[in-house]
C-alpha cells in the first residue's frame, strides 16, 4: 500500500482537490442530469455507472501513456475528440426522435438500462481531455519509491470513486425532481427537446474545444 499511495498529508490534499473537481459539473454530469430528468432515477444511476467506468478507462489510459500521445499528437487527439463529439450529437438526434409517451406507458424496455450504461461509458471514454486531465493532475501526488503506473491507477480509482459519489447525488436529486416535471405531457415533450439540445450542444462544444482549454 505504501508503494501505491502517498503519505497521508499528500493523500489528503489529493482527496480535497479531487472533491472540488468532482462536484464541478462537466460533460459527464450534464449527461447524467439529462438522463435522470428525462427517464428517472434508475436510468440516472445506470448513466453514473457508465460514466464512472469510462472515466476509469481514461485514468488507466493516462497511466499507460495514452495522454502523452494525445498531448503530442494533434491527429490522435482530433480523431478521438471528433468521435466523442459525433456520438454526443447522435445521442441528441436519438433523443429528439424518441416518441413522447404518457407516464403510465413509459416503462423502460428490458435493454434500456444496458444501453444507458453503454452510452454513459462512451461519452466519458471518448473525451480525450479527461485523459489529459489525469496526466496533468495525478503526477503531482506520485512518490518516487513506487511504480508510476500502479500509483496513477490507484489515485485514478480514488478520484473516479469520489466523482461517482458526487454524480450519484446529482442523479438522485434529478430523479427526485423528474416525476414532478413529467406528469404533464407538455413537460415530457419539453424534456425531450431539452435532452436533445443538451447532447447536441455538448457535441458541438466538444468538437470546437481547444486542446489547451481548461
How much of the polypeptide forms β-strand, as a percent range? under 5%
Give a count of the beta strands, DSSP E runs of length 2 or more. 0
Total helices: the number is 9
Helix content: over 70%
What is the molecular shape? globular
Q: How far is the first residue's CA from the last residue's CA?
A: 32 Å
Overall average residue pLDDT:
78
**What is the C-alpha radius of gyration, as a whole number of Å?**
18 Å
Low-confidence runs of at least 5 consecutive residues: 101-108, 210-214
Q: Pairing-aware structural class of the strands and helices?
A: mainly alpha
The major β-sheet equals:
none
The ordered H/E elements are HHHHHHHHH
Topology:
Layout: H1 8-22, H2 27-39, H3 41-63, H4 66-72, H5 74-97, H6 112-125, H7 128-137, H8 148-181, H9 185-208
Helix pairs in contact: 1-8, 2-3, 2-6, 2-8, 2-9, 3-6, 3-7, 3-8, 4-5, 4-7, 5-6, 5-9
Polypeptide structure, described:
- This protein has nine helices and no strands.
- Mean pLDDT is 78; it is low at 101-108 and 210-214.
- By secondary structure, the protein is mainly α.
- It has a domain at 8-73 and 116-186.
Summary of the model, kept short:
The chain has helices spanning 8-22, 27-39, 41-63, 66-72, 74-97, 112-125, 128-137, 148-181, 185-208. By secondary structure, the chain is mainly alpha-helical.
Structure keywords:
214 residues, mainly alpha, 0% strand, disordered C terminus
Amino acid at each position: 500500500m505504501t508503494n501505491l499511495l502517498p503519505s497521508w498529508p499528500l493523500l489528503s490534499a489529493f482527496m480535497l482537490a479531487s472533491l472540488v473537481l468532482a462536484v464541478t459539473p462537466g460533460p459527464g454530469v450534464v449527461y447524467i442530469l439529462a438522463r435522470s430528468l428525462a427517464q428517472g432515477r434508475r436510468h440516472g444511476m445506470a448513466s453514473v455507472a457508465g460514466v464512472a467506468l469510462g472515466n476509469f478507462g481514461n485514468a488507466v489510459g493516462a497511466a499507460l501513456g495514452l495522454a502523452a500521445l494525445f498531448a503530442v499528437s494533434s491527429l490522435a487527439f482530433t480523431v478521438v475528440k471528433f468521435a466523442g463529439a459525433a456520438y454526443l450529437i447522435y445521442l441528441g438526434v436519438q433523443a429528439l426522435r424518441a416518441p413522447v409517451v404518457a407516464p403510465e406507458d413509459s416503462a423502460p424496455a428490458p435493454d434500456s438500462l444496458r444501453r444507458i450504461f453503454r452510452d454513459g461509458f462512451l461519452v466519458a471514454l471518448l473525451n480525450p481531455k479527461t485523459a489529459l486531465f489525469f496526466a496533468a493532475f495525478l503526477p503531482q501526488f506520485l512518490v518516487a519509491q513506487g511504480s508510476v503506473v500502479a500509483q496513477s491507477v490507484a489515485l485514478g480509482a480514488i478520484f473516479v470513486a469520489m466523482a461517482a459519489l458526487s454524480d450519484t447525488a446529482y442523479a438522485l436529486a434529478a430523479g427526485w425532481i423528474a416525476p414532478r416535471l413529467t406528469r404533464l405531457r407538455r413537460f415530457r415533450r419539453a424534456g425531450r427537446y431539452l435532452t436533445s439540445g443538451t447532447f447536441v450542444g455538448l457535441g458541438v462544444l466538444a468538437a470546437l474545444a481547444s486542446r489547451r482549454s481548461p
